[in-house]
Amino acid sequence: MLNIVLFGPPGAGKGTQSEKLIAAFNLIHLSTGDLLRSEIAQQTTLGVKAKSLMDKGELVPDEVVIGMISSKLSENKQAQGFIFDGFPRTVPQAEALDQLLAEHGTSITCMLALEVDQEELTKRLLLRGKDSGRVDDQNEDIIRNRIKEYNNKTAPLKSFYSSQQKFYPVHGIGGVDDIFKALCAQIKVVYQAH
Ligand code: ADP
Asked: Please, how many CA atoms are within 13 Å of residue 171, restricted to the half-sphere of its CB?
């Protein structure tokens, strides 16, 4: 199986690149952000609770997203692989993911980390907010809070995957196709290393 953690700060281009990787490698896309937004749209209890945190740019509790990922893994036992997009976002989430995958007889192949500087991120998110209607993309304070959450809680995952020799950084500024090519080149490196 090819199990990729697509990593990067908010606005790094994870969603865009996920779509291309799914098509190229026949993977299942698991985006906790999308799963949470679908709960919000259906006005479930979980969705209502998550919305108030998401609108402030704060992370939802680990057990909520771990539970969602766990059921998606069980629903997709025949998959050739997964792209984890926006998950894991904390060390406990990464530990839980390793354990869940082990229970399914598989593991993370690599973490591909899109690297984009803060100024470019804010620019991209504000632009996206104009079309997406996402509350969390429309206000600079909320965006800054999301980037702060990323720096405090999520960035440490680079060391988590580095220590497993699974961390592969990719320059995330430039054309969508060029970045996609760089991601594919890293996947090739990973395959050759195995
Ligand atoms: P972005 O990467 O642009 O911030 P996402 O769609 O991945 O967008 O996430 C939107 C929001 O959903 C986050 O700010 C957070 O509140 C919540 N969220 C998504 N994934 C997670 C996660 N793995 N852990 C905690 N909160 C999450």
From this structure: 5
